[in-house]
Amino acid sequence: MKSLIEYIACSLVDQPDKVDVKQQRNGNRIRLELRVDKDDMGRVIGKSGRVANSMRILLRVAAAREGKQVTLYVIEP
Q1: What is the pTM of this model?
Q2: SS3 46
Q3: pLDDT averaged over every residue in the chain
Q4: pLDDT tens-digit profile of 20-42?
Q5: Contact 30, 68 (CB under 8 A)
Q6: What is the spatial distance between Cα 53 and Cα 14, in angstroms, rounded to a whole number?
Q7: Which residues contact 70 (CB under 8 A, 6 or more apart)?
Q8: Which residues make Cβ contacts (< 8 Å) with residue 48, sequence separation at least 6?
Q9: Quick check: 77 pLDDT over 90?
Q10: What domains sit in the chain, N to C, each tagged with a CATH number?
C-alpha cells in the first residue's frame, strides 16, 4: 500500500525526493500519511480534491483484495 502511494505521488510532483509516506497499522486497518513539498500540494490534491480521492479509491481496491482497510491522509506542510 505504501509503495503504491509513493509511486503515484512521485509521478505527480516536481520534487519526488520530498515525498514522504508514513504507515501505521492497527489490526486490519492501515493509516497512510502523505507529505509533499508545499509547492506540490496542488498537484497531489487536484482540482476539487479529485486526484487525492482517486488515490484513495485505488487504495481501497488494493486493500480490499488483501482483506484490509486503508485510509489516506494528505498532510499539509
Answers
A1: 0.89
A2: coil
A3: 94
A4: 999 999 988 999 999 999 999 99
A5: yes
A6: 20
A7: 1, 29, 30, 31, 32, 59, 60, 62, 63
A8: none
A9: no
A10: 2-75 (3.30.300.20)
